[in-house]
């Protein structure tokens, strides 16, 4: 199964690279982006597309790190709670049960 995942990932990465290469070749017109009063340097459209992709990947990975860190902390806390309760249960099982005489 791991071989199929690696092969599929490499295939998808190769296709993405080819699409980016074709987009870069076809979009060579230089443009400047304008945000309110700020105007960016003049770059080819392909550079803007690639930079937007890179910013999206970086931002997505940062969100993923934050989410995974929070989930790992929750899992660690739950594991500690479960371990503590398991120890309490083991101690309770180890204690002898006192026999209460039955009243007749």
Q: Give helix % range.
A: over 70%
Oligomerization state of this entry?
Answer: single chain
Q: What is the 3D shape?
A: elongated
Order of helices and strands: HEEEEH
Largest beta sheet: strand ordering: 1-4
Low-confidence residue ranges: none
Structural class: mainly alpha
Give the integer mean of the pLDDT values.
86
The strand count comes to 4
Distance between the termini: 68 Å
Strand content: 5-15%
What is Rg? 30 Å
Number of distinct helices? 2
Biggest beta-sheet profile: 2 strands, antiparallel
What would a concise description of this structure say?
By secondary structure, the protein is mainly alpha-helical. The protein has helices spanning 2-26, 45-94; strands at residues 30-31, 34-35, 38-39, 43-44. It has a domain at 47-81.
């Amino acid at each position: 199964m791991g071989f199929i995942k690696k092969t599929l990932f490499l295939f998808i990465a190769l296709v993405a690279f080819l699409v980016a290469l074709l987009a870069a070749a076809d979009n060579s017109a230089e443009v400047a982006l304008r945000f309110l009063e700020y105007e960016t340097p003049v770059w080819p459209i392909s550079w803007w597309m690639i930079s937007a992709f890179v910013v999206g990947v970086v931002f997505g990975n940062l969100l993923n790190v934050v989410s995974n860190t929070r989930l790992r902390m929750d899992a660690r806390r739950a594991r500690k709670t479960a371990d503590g309760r398991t120890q309490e249960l083991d101690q309770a099982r180890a204690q002898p049960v006192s026999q209460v005489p039955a009243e007749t």
